[in-house]
Fold each of these.
Amino acid sequence: MRIGIVCPYSWDVPGGVQFHIRDLAEHLIRLGHEVSVLAPADDDTPLPPYVVSAGRAVPVSYNGSVARLSFGFLSAARVRRWLHDGTFDVVHIHEPTSPSLGLLTCWAAQGPIVATFHTSNPRSRAMLAAYPILQPALEKISARIAVSEYARRTLVEHLGGDAVVIPNGVDVDFFAGAEPKAEWQGETLGFIGRIDEPRKGLPVLMKALPRILTERPGARLLVAGRGDEEEAVASLPAGMRSRVEFLGMVSDEDKARLLRSVDVYVAPNTGGESFGIILVEALSAGAPVLAADLDAFAQVLDQGAAGELFANEDADALADAAIRLLGDGARRAELSARGSAHVRRFDWSTVGADILAVYETVTDGAAAVDTDEKVGGLRARLGL
Amino acid sequence: MTETLIWTVVALIFIGVYLSWTAGRLDRLHTRIDAARAALDAQLLRRASVTQELATSGVLDPAASIVLYEAAHAARQAEEDHREVAESELSQALRAVFGEPEQVELVREAPGGEEAAGELAAAVRRVPMARRFHNDAVRAARALRRHRKVRWFRLAGHAPFPMAFEMDDEPPVALADRPS
């Protein structure tokens, strides 16, 4: 099958949607499909062979964080050319409501279009205003995928219609087979995510940390992610700052090794999450997980059966749970075992098969994707 | 006078282009519904065929075989206005027979059973998918068709008002469960 995938966010900046698209593309290529990914990227960024650049992206504030998006006349022209040259059997758009390549593709294409909705923003006035603009483009989508039951609910509320739920995929064995690193072991808490983005929740963890470090004198916190390290520990007493170790941006291998090594993985995110791929990765690595009780996280953790949940933004509840978990090896082993069994449903072998089933459902008997010739169509209809 | 005339002509052309564009939108939606309906029919037929194959294979006990055969046969033969009920009854029969993981294991162990169980699992998973895509298209078309401009100018032509396909498509737990 010839598959075109559209990534709305800049390929240069690592993010959940970008990783999902990369893994999906590589999974589909391994299965023998022809895949082309269209993504915004700087001209000098090295790209994998299956990625086509749609030009530079512009930083815009979107969904509570700054995203690098691509729009305008030039991008639209590149989308049309990509569609025309690709002659895809199906085009898979990600995040079609974001003002970027996804929406442009919806506008420019006709034929089988699949769209995945990743975010679940609360209903906003901007969304209501945008509805009449979005609707004609979104009508062309033959199949909608939501990454979680929560994302599906918001989609139904905002746009009407329905979607099938297919979770994001993870290469479970990659994480399960990683080698733990000795220096990251021994009463360690782990946190992975942007340090300077409050909704990733590091401030909540920092508030809980003094009590955890006092009660467990041997405990340490390992933080992997971009951001200002000095500012992050500013709220901690000076004596404790040395027990927070910043690893900066880590490679995929190191991320897997970190998750394999830590005693407890903490996800204190405060909102704006519709799935929580990092939790799935932590479960894959067999790390006991302690997460905020966001809807999306509760669903990934099987309502608390595959990992512990604490009340969102409640630093005391986080501290209590962390102290209890660090002192209870049997409970950690139990969580790890349950998590490892639960996480199999997120493996690419399962998720990839579901996504392919969607492709096959919409392409059955349909013509290939082509550019939508608005002017030509109009002319034909007027009989000219 | 000429100026008024020109502006009227411009306005009329503008309205004409807009209506033509809306008609195109509607046309595309109807095409989408047709494609989605064909895909749904294909998935339903596939599910009934695999069920019938399993029912006549002798792998299952005679009682379960008869229940499945009857339901699958009824679903395949159903008239259009009885289709939703018949397909729902097939879903219920499948749930009754494949409610226990042991029953699925039994099928898998039989020669060629691995394949049959896999096909049935794929079919019961794809029916709800295809139905959601179909009803999603129906909803979009209905929303547009209810609009004033479409009703007043009869942009929908003679196309019948689209109907959603309502049925019970809950898959059997033992088949739908992801590997653990």
Note: The first helix of chain A runs from residue 16 to 30.
Amino acid sequence: MKQVLAILALLVLAFLFAGLVPMASKPGNGAVGDYYATHGIADNRGSNLVTSIVVNYRGLDTLGEVTVLFLSVMGVGFILRRREGTPKYSPVPASPILNTGANLLFGSILLLGAYIFVHGHLTPGGGFQGGSVIASGVLLLILARRDRELSHDLLAWLESLSGFGYALVGLVGLVVAGSFLANKGVLPLGTWNRLFSAGVIPIIYILIGLKVGAELSTLLDIMIREPAPEGGGH
Amino acid sequence: MVDPILLIAVPLGIAFLLPLVDRLGRAASRWVHFLTLVFYTGAAASWALALHKGTVAAKDIITASWPPPVGINLHMGLAEAVILSLAGITGICAALYLVPREEKPSIRSIVLQVLLLAGTAGLTLTRDIFNMFVFLEITSISTFAIVLLGKEKKALEAGFKYMILGGIASVLLLLGIAFLYKTTGTLNMADMAAKLPALFTGGAAAALVFLFVCMVIELKGFPLNGPAIDLYEGVEPGVMALIVGTTLNAVLFAFWKILPLFGGAAWEGVIMTSGMATFVLGNLFATRQKKVRRMLGYSSSAQVGLLVFMLPLLRNHVVTLAALGLLLLNHTLAKASLLWFTGIHEEEEIGGWRGAFANNPLLRILFGASVLAIAGLPPFPGFWGKWYALAGMARSPYAWWILPLLLGSLLEFVYYFRWLKESARGVEPARSEVVPFSLSAPPAIFTAIGLVLGIRALYGPALGVSSQAWLWMWAGGILLAAAFLPERVQAGLSFLAVLLGSILLYSSGALALHTLSGFFTSLVVIGALVFSLARLGIPALHRNYHGLFLLLAGSLLIVLKTDSLLGFFAGWELMTWTSYFLVRQGKKGPAASYLYILFSGAAGFLVLGGLMTAVAGGAVTISGLGALRGNTALWAWILLAAGLAVKVGSWGAHIWAPESYSEAPDVFTPFLSGVISKIPVFAFLAVAAKIALPGVTTTLGTLDPAWVLGWIGGLTAFGMTLLAVFQDDMKKLLAYSSLGQVGYIVLGFAMMSSLGWTAALYHSLNHLLFKGLLFVTIAGVIYRTGTRSLSDLGGLITRMPFSFFAVLIGIITLSGVPPLSGFAGKWLLYQAGIQKGWYLLTALAMFASILAFPYLFKLIHSIFLGQLKREHREIREAPKAVVLSQWILIAGIMLLSVAPGTVLVPIQEAVKAFFGKAAFTTATATELATDLGYFHAMGVMSMVVVLAVIVLAGILFFLPKHTTKVKQLDIVYSGEVPPPPEEIQYAQNFFRPFERAYSPVLLPRVKAFWKSFSESVLSLAEAGRRLYTGDGQTYILYALGVVLFLVLFIFPAPASSSSKAPGGKTGYIVPVPRKARPAEVGVQAPRPGILPGGKAK
Amino acid sequence: MDITMVYIGTALALVLVGLGGVLLKRNILKMVLALDIVETGVNLLLIGIGYTPGREAPIVDKTSFFADRAKETVNAANLVDPVPQALVLTAIVIGLGTTALMLSYVIRLYAQKKTLDIREFGRLKW
């Protein structure tokens, strides 16, 4: 009965969606989008307009986004509170192929990740993308070295300081330029299409890159561990 | 002032740092947590205060140096500041509360709490729709995680279902935002709202449906509130309190911010219907709920539904921001407190609440106060909020919505007071609840905030609460706080307060008999004085008695003195709950008082309905009621009269009264019967009459409503008298008798003539004297013998002669025969009836009068005559204070008997003010003459006294000399061992044949009616709540169903523009010209010029 | 038939597929994954909404994009709308966050009940 209703509802929804397709696929940019496209370079000098929007124009969103990530790390950690003494990693050792591959690749993955977030204002990519790449390297490491633990100290410091740094950069904007997360008037904007350009945008993106890398790694680390057996709870 | 952006930035930054801080130790993190919250609360509260005083203007904040719509902007106004202050205080209290609740404290829970607050700030302040989405997710995700704090067996399931539905909600929101961006090309709310109507296309219509359904899910609207209610049941209540105080309000405010997008009458109807359905149905389903926390869940959903319902009204300037704010504040304060209580007393089922907080008086008072607050009773903020909101609605085309609103509010009474009832029953001394400070402080703080705000509102000059009334109430409040004092001391203090208050009232001229208010104030003073005196002899059962009594007396003074409709109703509701708590203090009080509060609540809402009708007619004050005309006047009168009739226990709605009168503490019943039952009479005269007088011609067809009321009064007088005859419980007997007597008063009032009113007023005083006398004496008898049952008593005349004499005087007065004062009252009433031409009704009243004789005889006979029971042989006379108060009342009766004119002449003056015609042709202290007859009280009295003296002398003269008095057991036995003497008791099955004769009339039809009524309501609730199957997928299907329903039925043609919104489809929508933008909450207008005019369409 | 319509249609179809999974699959792990599909569909829809055939990604890495080199204004008609792309970035991260939380709930629920069937989690009702 419920299934039938569900399928029926989905069919009606499909019909409704079909009606929305032509409207959603009309060509042309939104008014705000056009503004960013036209004036983005003049405002921020970052070649990558998406980065300018993410880090500057809609910087508050991104601060929130970083918070969401931090929050989910905290939340997942909170939900999967471990009991002391439970095994963490699978005792089965990784194969030599994985081990060797990890050794070879980890450094370059880290480098690629860093490259992506350092050049976030110039090329596709940025803090989130770079951070994810770094985390994927860490995942490789976790899979290869099941007997070792990640340095939680390092991750925690990275996580906290980069997050706090982001908020601090925002506050510097508030003090120096009169508005939270401001770019103009805080640092020189530099020349268009150069590495050292776009004011505080690269700084923020580097902080985000570090934070995302650290956070995703922590997240993976927490989730790979065995959960607490139920009954005693926590 | 602190830059509002710091409310977001500081908690976020601190949250990032907290894991590092925690390395210094948990104490350090707790301090940082606490200081962050203090900063947050302080910043928000300073904004709130400054904005309230008007010393600063609302502030727009731009981020990243870009004005909207290019950058994200925030807005700090009064509403935002209040919501965030509340969130901050909740955060502090919740943090305090949660410390001992967490079994294995973790830094993560602190981080989650801080982020919840940061998310709340962002959600409240932002004016960008996508930014709103981000902060909504921050609050949601922190909620998803933190609900697992504490015992999490059930929380896990509940949380998962909540998350899945929350996921659907965020998908819907994102879909909505996507289509709205495509349509308008902007994400700024104000900009979007400005552009939307012109571009209203199918995509935008669908987007609004998605947005709305998302909001319904987030705001726990019907029928998508299943998982949220599960959450209340399964999750640590301290966490739920935190969520109620923070994100719930912020989400509501977010909905308010995007409300301008929902243009058109159709949307208005949908939003209001959805909110009201949630309110009524949530409350209905809650009535069937035995699990306390689940009940609170339904209630929360309902209350938020009410707020949602009011948002479009706020937008149309029907309801003020202040009204809505008070309701929101009240809900947060009361609901969080109640949730905290369910954490302190961790019983899931309502039955487990027996004797809760029995040995913790502070928590007990706080718990009661929280229930009062959530039920919307004064002085708590919800009362004022509801009144202002209703008053706004009454004057608008939305007036009919008041009906379901009051219905839902009454349903709230049903389950909240049932909870109080259960918690009062029995005391479990075995359970000693040592409640740590950190658990009891949060509800104390919240209740205190509510009280301070509410009392400030009560001090409003327009309410006309006299300083005298305040004196009484403050005395009561202080005594309530000093409830730890011994009972004797309290009783003494209370009596002194009453004495002092009475003297002050007298010296200020408030007791002038020739005004209505003065007359009734005198009744209150007489009752309070005499019964307080009697209480010195009979200790109260409960330590809160004295404080509550003074509060009650103070509330009566408000009702009697004020000219403001709001002040009147505030006093009325104060009277309702103070007397409720006093009734509840009897041994079987909880059950009786539950019935009392339900009927009183219903009466209150009927009165409120009547007052709102008057407000709709433009009245603000009681004296302004005279200006009402036509149907408004008629309906205001009918609703008021109906409410007052319920409150005096008229036939049909009387079932609450005998229970309450008999189960109330013995020392309180005289006041209940003698004074409180007169307050509705006063309201009849002072409020309802003002309406009907100019509109006597308004009739329901050929039916005169006053005539109907007269019949109700007459039938009540007859029926209750009849029922009194068959009672074995002497308090119940007198209770029915009281109802009957008040029936006469109602009859007198309904006559709407000067003679009728004079009779009613005179009888009010008389009834106070003789029924007070009877109840006080009975209280003394019960105090000495410990029983209320007539069949357990007998022969007390030798042990309690003074009491016997008092009852004798009382019943003679009640029966209305000369020479005592009762006669004048009946005499006047019959004359008024004849003058009016209501012969049948007058005959009925006369017949009812005669019916009183049997029960009066039964009363005095069963208690005082016949054989003395063995266990009563050592009984002493009632305490001296009781006897003294008896004598005072007897003196009053004697004065009235000899010189009724001392009271009737001023009464005549008072009544003349209404009818312009005197009741009497001549009236002096001892002589009265009307058009129909003549009565010389002194003459009658002299005659009777002379006759009595002759008869007595004759008896003494003819009495045989040398008579020996034989005692009951003084029998000569001829050397035998006497068997134990048999005690003969006549009261058993007294009047049995009589009862058989009347049996067809006596069938308990009324009780059966109310029983089946309540059963059908409950079965409706039972059927309805099956909707929440507990299956997570069903709930998602509901969400999808609501989306499709709205798209297909409410907005069938998505391509139509908003100006042609299909409002005709839905008949309940009231089209009202819409103001462009809410004035109260300044939405920042987009700055023109920043966009280089490039229209991308 | 416009290519954008294909993108949008696919995105909405993904939403439908995901919703079907959420509504019809009893396994809570599959429900979480299905919700993820819904989110992906919405993200794709956002990208589609900003897309205009023939325009380039909003990265101004060539001088030819400029309308006026001196004033540093760019000819917006050559670029697709950058706003939805920025929004998608945020939406993806938020989706990640909720999915992570849901998965940890699944882990806990399985540990508690040793089952993943949603029907077993209906104790709280009415």
Note: The CA atoms of residues 44 and 84 of chain B lie 6 Å apart.
